[in-house]
Amino acid sequence: xxxxxxxxxxxxxxxxxxxxxxxxxxxxxxxxxxxxxxxxxxxxxxxxxxxxxxxxxxxxxxxxxxxxxxxxxxxxxxxxxxxxxxxxxxxxxxxxxxxxxxxxxxxxxxxxxxxxxxxxxxxxxxxxxxxxxxxxxxxxxxxxxxxxxxxxxxxxxxxxxxxxxxxxxxxxxxxxxxxxxxxxxxxxxxxxxxxxxxxxxxxxxxxxxxxxxxxxxxxxxxxxxxxxxxxxxxxxxxxxxxxxxxxxxxxxxxxxxxxxxxxxxxxxxxxxxxxxxxxxxxxxxxxxxxxxxxxxxxxxxxxxxxxxxxxxxxxxxxxxxxxxxxxx
Length: 328
Hints:
Layout: H1 2-6, E1 22-23, H2 24-30, E2 37-39, E3 45-46, E4 48-50, E5 59-63, E6 75-79, E7 89-91, H3 95-106, E8 120-123, E9 126-129, E10 133-134, E11 139-140, E12 145-146, E13 151-152, E14 157-158, E15 163-164, E16 167-169, E17 174-175, E18 180-183, E19 204-207, E20 212-213, E21 218-220, E22 226-229, E23 234-235, E24 240-241, E25 246-247, E26 252-253, E27 258-259, E28 264-265, E29 270-271, E30 276-277, E31 282-283, E32 288-289, E33 294-295, E34 304-306, E35 311-312, H4 313-327
Parallel strand pairs: 4-5, 5-6, 6-7, 9-12, 10-13, 11-14, 12-15, 13-16, 14-17, 15-18, 16-19, 17-20, 18-21, 19-22, 20-23, 21-24, 22-25, 23-26, 24-27, 25-28, 26-29, 27-30, 28-31, 29-32, 30-33, 32-34
Antiparallel strand pairs: 1-3, 2-7, 8-9, 34-35
């Protein structure tokens, strides 16, 4: 996993027309209504946001636990607990609200500003950002929208009515009609609901070579880092992939499946239609998940599961047989 993150570092500045840098001590003022309790020795100039998986230079990280690597001198921790590792941090009473305030200030984005500056060329019925990077061999259908910073490599096919934002797409990818790649993820706080309190998503989607995306699919961009689909993987129609999901190579997913945020799907996995996969779990390599299963916990390599909650498929078949016998 660490190898994956290190090899897919992207430039945040490519996707935003403006990034507002902020000094660490000014963050205290920005968070004034969250009753910040600061411990800051160095007035770091904050240029980016980090996750636990990928630490960036001159950045902020949001944690509800102790930071385990005190050697980073250019990192500011925002936390709801006191940090004891002699690092610069600001304690607040609500991390989610702190995240929203800081990111909304640093990265003006489409969820809070109708005029999220971009500049488009109108080509063959589609709007394509002048700040995107698209190989000449790419085929783009009618009524598509391709936003700022998007990179699309050789021999990719984009069919009609496709929206692509915050994405890096490798060669030989196909994206079918009416799909949206790089949409805002569903980040929220149950204690502070509504459209004005959606968590900003400043990450990307990465589609590796030979990926196939069916019609009417949505793939949300990462909250801070990325949502990832490995090479040769195929998605049927009407599939939703939530933020931060990582899908391995040679994965086949049938229609109407939904994969919740931050889940990891291994290599050579087959997922039947109408499957629901809970968030923050791991599906091992070479697993098979039967149609209409509900996967609520992690599954080891080479598993075959079915039902809700999903269990070993042999046990599930016995359960169904016993139910039918008891009904008779």
